[in-house]
Amino acid sequence: MQPTYLPWSGYFNLMAHADAFVFLDDVQFSRRSWQTRNRILLNGNEVMLTVPVQSSDRDQTRVRDVRIASGPWQRKHFASLTQAYSNAAFGRELLAIISAAYESLDSATHLATFNRNLIVLLAQALAIDKPLLNASELKCSGHRSEHLLNICLTVGCDEYLSPVGSADYLAEDDFASNGRVSLRFQSYVPTPYPQPKTKGFVSHLSVVDVIAHHGLEFARHYVRGSLP
Fold first, then answer.
1. Mapping DSSP to helix (H, G, I), strand (E, B) and coil, where does residue 120 land?
2. pLDDT digits (tens, 9 = 90+) for 141-198
3. Each residue of 73-110: pLDDT tens digit?
4. With the C-alpha atoms ordered 129, 22, 205, 77, is the resulting torsion angle positive or negative?
5. Is 14 in contact with 186 (CB distance < 8 Å)?
6. Checking phi first, is residue 74 left (phi over 0); if not, alpha (psi -120 to 50) or beta?
7. Could you tell me the sign of the dihedral formed by the alpha carbons of 10, 13, 14, 20, in that order?
8. Which 3 state secondary structure label does DSSP give 37?
């Protein structure tokens, strides 16, 4: 998976059910993607937080090379997160978990590094302990499905667990017929949970919403799809 900003619960579900997790940081950067943004719930309304990045040639820039733009955005984001969740039942616990990533931004000038730092902090809090690898360090060749296959072979796995959003291009590339690595799709469906000030369940928010309102023990089961 690409290193996304404040990922949703399904991202950590995929991580929890894998034996090794690879940050796909060597593919083309897409400015209008979840790499730079995600949603939280503020006073019952969806709010999009977007990380500003420096201008780049989108046809040539890889995810690992994207630099974060200068400015006070990190203070604004953390202020929004504080406003949204400080009064939630477990809000202070959440803010304590992620604050280190925002405070250390000066040493993480690249988007992928900053996102990974946040993801690692959240994964540790969710008791997800798996090998976390950067695709750029594996130096695998190939395009699209061939690239994924080469990563699987380099890591030494015999099965690729994929999000369902990749089904179309994996089918188009006929990944399943490669004969060396089997293909399995993630089957995670987020369960509705109580959210203050909302008329209905707002799905696919950042995982911070689950943690803030219901705590880490609940969230650990939630992301694994194993609620009692």
1. helix
2. 998 999 999 999 999 999 999 999 999 999 999 999 999 999 999 999 999 999 999 9
3. 999 999 999 999 999 999 999 999 999 998 876 656 89
4. positive
5. yes
6. alpha
7. positive
8. strand
Strands (E) located in 92-219: 132-134, 159-162, 182-185
Contacts of 95 (CB under 8 A, 6+ apart): 78, 81, 82, 85, 86
**Angle, alpha carbons 178-184-188 (nearest 5°):** 155
Both structure tokens of 160: 């690729």
Give the other-Cβ count within 10 Å of 48's Cβ. Answer: 8
Residue 67 sits at the vertex; the CA angle it makes with 64 and 70, to the nearest 5 degrees, is: 160
Among 9, 5, 1, 8, which Cα is nearest to 223's? Answer: 9
The gap from C-alpha 215 to its chain's centroid, in whole angstroms, comes to 19
Three-class DSSP category at 17: coil
- Measured CA to CA, the distance from residue 74 to residue 23 in angstroms comes to 22
